[in-house]
Amino acid sequence: MPDLCTALARRRGRRIELRAFPLKSGGPLGAWLETPNADVIVFQKETPPHHQDHIVLHELGHMLADHPGPPGTDVWESLLPGLKSDAIRRALLRCSYDTEEEQEAELVATIVGEWASILDHVTPTRQSDDPAVRRVQAALGDHQGWL
To answer: How many other C-beta atoms lie within 10 A of the C-beta of residue 19?
Structure first.
């Protein structure tokens, strides 16, 4: 996850901060907050690490797709007390997957998560003399090339 966030931050020209937070049950498990200086991803602290990774990947999917946020930021004060409403330029916080944007972000999270889970198992550890094998190694060896 850190390598992916670093690469995406470099591409966007702004840092990405990941913050585990005990979000209220029954509400969203994650949120992307675009502030003037950084992209902040807040994710449920009280869930297993694998699920936290999926939540973060979902929010990164919103970033990659450049999804707009809803108008108004009144909800953030109740979610993150002390946060000034003018500190957020864009925010995505949803509790369902019934919109095209949410489905797209979920698809990104699933594909990237699955790819990452098998990548270390399929990437050859040494270079082969066989040209066909080298082509496969080149295709599988660049873990961040799709960014």
So the answer is: 12
List beta partners, residue 40. 17, 33
CB 62 within 8 A of CB 40: no
Q: Which residue blocks in the chain are alpha helix, DSSP H?
A: 2-12, 49-65, 75-79, 100-122, 131-141
**E strand or H helix at 43:** strand 38-44
Count other C-beta atoms under 10 Å from residue 84's C-beta.
Answer: 10
Helix (H, G, I), strand (E, B) or coil at 20: strand
Give the residue among 20, 23, 18 at the shortest CA–CA distance from 8.
18
Query: Is the Cβ–Cβ distance between 32 and 40 less than 8 Å?
Result: yes
Cα 144 to Cα 121: distance, rounded to the nearest angstrom = 16
pLDDT of residue 46: 92
| pLDDT at residue 71 greater than cutoff 80 | no
Q: Is residue 87 classed as helix, strand or coil in its secondary structure?
A: helix
pLDDT at 86 over 70: no
Q: pTM of the prediction? A: 0.70
